[in-house]
Amino acid sequence: MLAKHVLAVVLIGGFLALGWWQVARASGGNALSWGYAFEWPLFAGFVGFLWYREIREALGTPAVVQDPAAEASAEPVAPLPPVLGTRAPKLGSGFRRPVLVPRRQPAPVGPAAADPVLDEYNDYLAWLNANPGAKAAQYPGRRRGPG
């Protein structure tokens, strides 16, 4: 755990130092460095945010403080069934339960309209399957000639 704190402090300090370095370069005439001068402090802020969240989670402080009276009057909720390959978040970690939506059943499909081209192709495939060594030119079915 100490390594995470050291890493966070080093990263925040390094990112702020890089931002200050970019300000110095931008003041010297490098226009592109103005973008980096704002980018590095944003990185430092992001690391600080993640560090804060890690500390809060380690201490067990809830993300949202709720009214204890409201929790006592709420009706109990049945636990969700476990899902393979996922971990349930700890209570009070700021996550809410997922909304379960029933799957829609596909609409029933009626009989397909007759398609003579598809029927001919399926007959050809069945013939090829029945005659694995045959060539396509040997197919005895309907042949289309020129014209």
Automatic annotation (TrEMBL):
The chain crosses the membrane at residues 36-52. Keywords: DNA-binding, Membrane, Transmembrane, Transmembrane helix. One of its GO terms (molecular function) is DNA binding. This is DNA-binding transcriptional regulator of glucitol operon. It comes from Asanoa ferruginea. The lineage of its organism: Bacteria, Bacillati, Actinomycetota, Actinomycetes, Micromonosporales.
